[in-house]
Design a protein that fits this description.
The protein is 21% helix and 19% strand. The protein is α+β, with helices and mostly antiparallel strands and 135 residues long. The protein is globular. It binds FE2/S2 (inorganic) cluster. The site of FE2/S2 (inorganic) cluster (FES) has 12 residues, from loops.
C-alpha cells in the first residue's frame, strides 16, 4: 500500500477518514474517500501518476475511464480528474496513459499496448455526464 505518512502526501489528498474499496480491471484497491478518482490512482501509484501527461483540469482526457458505480446497472465513461471516488466503483476500461502509469500495480490485469473501444477517443460530451463532481 502507498505510504501516506509524509507531509507531502498529506497535502496532496483532501482530508479523509477512511479508505474505500474500488476495483480496477478486476483488481481490488483501497483508496481515500472524498478525493477524485485520479487522486485515488495517485494514492495507488504515487511514483508514476504525478509524472503522467495529466492536465488535472478536464482538458486532456488522458484520465478517461469506463466505470460502473455500485448503484449503476452499466458502465459509463467518466473523467477521473473530475469524478469523486466512491466505495464499490468498478473500472473496466482505462485510457492508455492511465494504463501505463498503473501497469506495475495492475500486473497481469493491465491490458496489452492497444486498449479497446472508445475509451481512447476524446469525448467533449463528458462534461455533461460527470454530475457527481465536487468543485
Ligand atoms: S487529467 Fe486531463 S482531463 Fe482529466
Amino acid at each position: 500500500m502507498a505510504d501516506t505518512s509524509t507531509p507531502l502526501m498529506d497535502e496532496i489528498f483532501r482530508p479523509y477518514e477512511k479508505l474505500v474499496e474500488i476495483t480496477i480491471l478486476g483488481k481490488t484497491f483501497l483508496v481515500p474517500e472524498r478525493n477524485s478518482l485520479l487522486r485515488a490512482f495517485q494514492f495507488i501509484s504515487p511514483e508514476t501518476i504525478p509524472y503522467g501527461r495529466f492536465c488535472w483540469n478536464q482538458e486532456c482526457q488522458y484520465c478517461k475511464v469506463s466505470c460502473q458505480l455500485s448503484d449503476d446497472d452499466q458502465a459509463r465513461p467518466i473523467l477521473s480528474c473530475k469524478f469523486l471516488v466512491s466505495d464499490g466503483m468498478n473500472i473496466s476500461e482505462m485510457a492508455p496513459e492511465l494504463v501505463g502509469c498503473l501497469r506495475s500495480k495492475l500486473g497481469a490485469a493491465a491490458p496489452a499496448a492497444n486498449p479497446p473501444s472508445e475509451i481512447t477517443k476524446p469525448d467533449r460530451k463528458l462534461d455533461n455526464q460527470n454530475e457527481k463532481l465536487e468543485r
